[in-house]
Amino acid sequence: MSTPPLASGPEGPDALRPLLDTVLHALAEGTAARGGPLPAGGPEHVASRLRAALGDPLPQHGSADALHTLVRALAEGAADPADPLCAAHLHCPPLAVATAADLAASALNPSLDSWDQAPAASELETLVTQALAHEVYGARGDALITTGGTESNQLALLLARETHSGVQLVCGAGAHHSLHRATWLLGLPEPVVVPAPAGTLDPAALDSALTDLRGPLLVAATAGTTDAGLIDPLPDIADLCATHGARLHIDAAYGGGLLFSDRHRTELDGLARADTVTLDLHKLGWQPVAAGVLAVREPADLTPLGHRAEYLNADDDTEAGLPDLLGRSLRTTRRPDILKIAVTLKTLGRHGIGALVDQVCAHAHELADLIAAHPGFELYDRPAISTVLFRPTGATDDTVAAVRRTLLNEGRAVLGRATLDGRRWLKATLLNPHTRPGDLATLLKLVEGHTPR
Questions:
Q1: Whole-prediction pTM
Q2: What architecture is the 111-347 domain classified under in CATH?
């Protein structure tokens, strides 16, 4: 048996070319076989088909058609975020140019734990993270690349803990679950949860909590809640943090993309006053997973991440001018996720990305208008970003849940769910800039047609 070809090196491109044709054909076949936003039949049917395609996961002898067979099976059994009727989660359809860049990153396979494994990638990361930090903070700050909002939030709490020993987290009722998990992971006290009666953190309740608490405090605000895409009153919260001497973290994993939009950027007023900010470009950035960012106002706050390993950043190498990368993450091996981000920013520019943001926000308002005008539906509220919550008029919570599951099992549409104001809502998160008005009308017709009367 001949030695399998490698993806990089002089022969790499020629080895990849026929494999890419195989992948593209398998993707097309699988997508056509699926025929919608989600495979029909429910979990057991999907699992059965996948098991049949996989067979023995570790056979004694390999199969030449494994690439085609498994890519086709995965595509047929995928939830396709590029389908306009796949609108449940903050799960974007990635841009083709970003996906192509990600292929190059996989082929070259640099690892951003030492300069001699990633000479160009480490410089690219330095330049692009500085640009992203300046997008948040102006001509200051720094930023790290992470695996997403969860890691960014965990790092933000870690930096707060290292800066202020014994820090107490204070967050709103709508804060992301990763903040609660991070306090457990880092051995911090249980968070103090402030009421959010309108879905956003209440400044008066926050003021009361900060007045009553003692010791170092970290307030976590949210710019784009998971349930409804709501943005906390950031300027008011920043004022309260300044008054009470509290550190401020803003989780803008969802809403951070508004920075690129001239039309919507002002909705993030107050963002630059945070000590740390979570961004997530595999949401309103149209990147393949993963593309998270943690921006910090004071670069010195990153000092606690510094770490020494003789084989990666020996003192004499650092003194000789080799960049030290270990302080840029808690991970050691890191793939160059920065490449796809850099290619996207350079290809589209601020205006191109901003236009995509504007489009999905506009689609959300179009859907909200359709719901508000339809007697068979109830709209939760006007969308703050690109999330729309609604429910069939007069339906019970159990009916709302059942309609969603029926559409999933039939493979017709993918909608999320949220519980606000004590009621269950269907959630449409619109991240596909190619969505058309007819798609939105189809989505509502499917819900209406599956709602018992």
A1: 0.97
A2: 3-Layer(aba) Sandwich (3.40)
Mean of the pLDDT values across residues 216-225?
Answer: 98
CA 191 to chain centre: 23
The structure tokens listed for 16 are 């990849």
Tokens coding 19: 């494999």
Cβ-contact 196, 421 below 8 angstroms: no
By C-alpha distance, which of 440, 410, 406, 403 is closest to 38?
Answer: 410
For the beta sheet containing 217-222, the strands, ordered from the edge strand earlier in sequence to the opposite edge, are 142-146, 292-296, 276-280, 247-252, 217-222, 168-172, 192-194
Task: Count Cα neighbours of 253 within 13 Å in the Cβ-side half-sphere.
Answer: 28
Beta strands in 350-451 (DSSP E): 377-379, 387-392, 416-420, 423-429
Q: Where are the domains of the chain?
A: 15-55+67-79, 111-347, 349-449
Reported as type and span, the H/E element at residue 325 is none
CATH class of 349-449: alpha beta
Picking from 433, 387, 382, 356, the residue whose alpha carbon sits closest to that of residue 224 is 387
Structure tokens at 48: 């059965």
Q: Do 383 and 368 touch, CB atoms closer than 8 A?
A: yes
Digit-coded pLDDT (tens) for 306-322: 999 999 999 999 999 99
Specify the 3-state DSSP secondary structure of 366.
helix
Long-range interactions of 65-74: CB distance < 8 A, separation 24+: 67/19, 67/22, 67/23, 67/26, 68/22, 68/25, 68/26, 69/26, 71/22, 71/23, 71/26, 71/27, 71/30, 72/26, 72/27, 72/29, 72/30, 72/33, 73/30, 73/49, 74/30, 74/50
- Phi–psi pair at 365, nearest 5 degrees: -70, -35
Beta bridge partners, 223, equal 231
pLDDT value of position 409: 96
DSSP letters spanning 209-252: HHHH--S-EEEEEEBS-TTT--B--HHHHHHHHHHHT-EEEEEE
- Selection from 186, 148, 171, 181 nearest residue 282 by Cα: 148
Which residues are CB-contacts of 110 (< 8 A; sequence separation ≥ 6)? 117, 118, 120, 121, 335, 336
pLDDT at 204 over 80: yes
CA dihedral 69, 34, 401, 290 (to 10 degrees): 60
Structure token digits, residue 115:
């300069």
**CA 227/CA 389 separation, integer angstroms:** 8
Asked whether residue 91 carries a pLDDT value surpassing 70, the answer given is: yes
Do residues 184 and 169 lie in contact, with contact meaning Cβ atoms separated by under 8 Å? no
Q: What is the CA radius of gyration of the chain?
A: 24
The size of the chain, in residues, is: 453
